[in-house]
């Protein structure tokens, strides 16, 4: 399918589990930038995560799929589960781009992750491969997450239809830093609540809550 003139977003992560904070960010970006499509991409073998046990990639994929099953425009891709080796973001961007000829790819990335992007696999090639949108941290200015190794030049106080600002990355790609509402929810706190037998209602979409219960996830001791 020819995607000329079309912008699509990709939002990757371990999603262990996918929660309402993830969902709200995805919806805000889609609506604020008038995007026709947003792909959630669960990471199969994240190279930058600590070695704590994670739910199986298939479970994390199923939870993300359950979360957005009835949301138009948001879908889940299993491409990192089908690919051998570490889940390098550069390969993911290229695969999505190849599958959507002519489309502009927008890579959604958390501020904590962007702060460490200079440690990522072939990060300079990644920064040149697509535009980026940095998801904010509560009460912290975007500039605080700019890696010192990367020259980032502010463009001005505009971020399409969202409040915030935009910057230029090396090579001319754009970094969008929108001021989005942030839900203070973490996957780790959800796993801990499940481990302790406490309710996670309101923290995750109903389909995710049901999946966790039906499959007995996160009931063991949390480590790391």
Compile the SSE list and pairings.
Blueprint: E1 7-13, H1 20-32, E2 37-42, H2 57-67, E3 74-76, H3 79-82, H4 89-99, E4 104-110, H5 111-115, H6 123-129, E5 131-135, E6 153-156, E7 164-168, E8 174-178, H7 187-195, H8 206-215
Parallel strand pairs: 1-2, 1-4, 2-3, 4-5, 5-8
Antiparallel strand pairs: 6-7, 7-8
Main attributes of the structure:
8 helices; 224 residues; alpha/beta; 19% strand
In this structure, how is the largest beta sheet organized? 8 strands, mixed
The CATH H-level superfamily is HUPs
> Number of domains in the coordinates?
1
Number of helices, where a helix is a run of at least 4 consecutive DSSP H or I residues = 8
Describe the global form.
globular
Question: Per DSSP, what share of the residues sits in E-state strands of 2 or more residues?
Answer: 15-25%
Q: Whole-number radius of gyration?
A: 17 Å
Order of helices and strands: EHEHEHHEHHEEEEHH
Number of strands: 8
Helix content: 25-40%
Question: Which CATH class applies here?
Answer: Alpha Beta
Average pLDDT rating: 91
Structural class per helix/strand content? Answer: alpha/beta
Low-confidence stretches: none
* Strands side by side in the biggest sheet: 3-2-1-4-5-8-7-6
Question: For the terminal residues, how far apart are their CA atoms?
Answer: 43 Å
State the CATH topology: Rossmann fold
Name the CATH architecture.
3-Layer(aba) Sandwich
């Amino acid at each position: 399918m020819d995607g000329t003139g079309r912008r699509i977003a990709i939002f990757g992560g371990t999603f262990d589990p996918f929660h309402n904070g993830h969902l709200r960010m995805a919806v805000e970006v889609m609506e604020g930038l008038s995007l026709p499509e947003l792909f959630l991409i669960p990471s199969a073998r994240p190279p930058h995560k600590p070695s704590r046990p994670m739910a199986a990639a298939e479970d994390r994929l199923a939870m993300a799929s359950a979360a957005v099953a009835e949301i138009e425009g948001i879908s889940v891709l299993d491409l990192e589960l089908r690919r051998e080796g570490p889940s390098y973001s550069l390969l993911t961007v290229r695969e999505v781009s190849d599958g959507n000829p002519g489309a502009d790819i927008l890579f959604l990335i958390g501020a904590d992750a962007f702060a460490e992007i200079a440690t990522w696999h072939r990060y300079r090639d990644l920064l040149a491969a697509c535009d980026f949108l940095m998801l904010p941290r509560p009460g912290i200015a975007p500039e605080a997450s700019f890696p010192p190794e990367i020259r980032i030049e502010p463009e001005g106080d505009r971020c399409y239809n969202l409040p915030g600002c935009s910057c230029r990355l090396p090579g001319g790609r754009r970094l969008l830093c929108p001021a989005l509402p942030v839900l203070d929810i973490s996957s780790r706190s959800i796993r801990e609540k499940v481990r302790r037998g406490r309710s996670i209602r309101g923290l995750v979409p109903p389909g995710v809550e049901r999946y966790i219960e039906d499959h007995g996830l996160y009931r063991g001791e949390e480590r790391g």
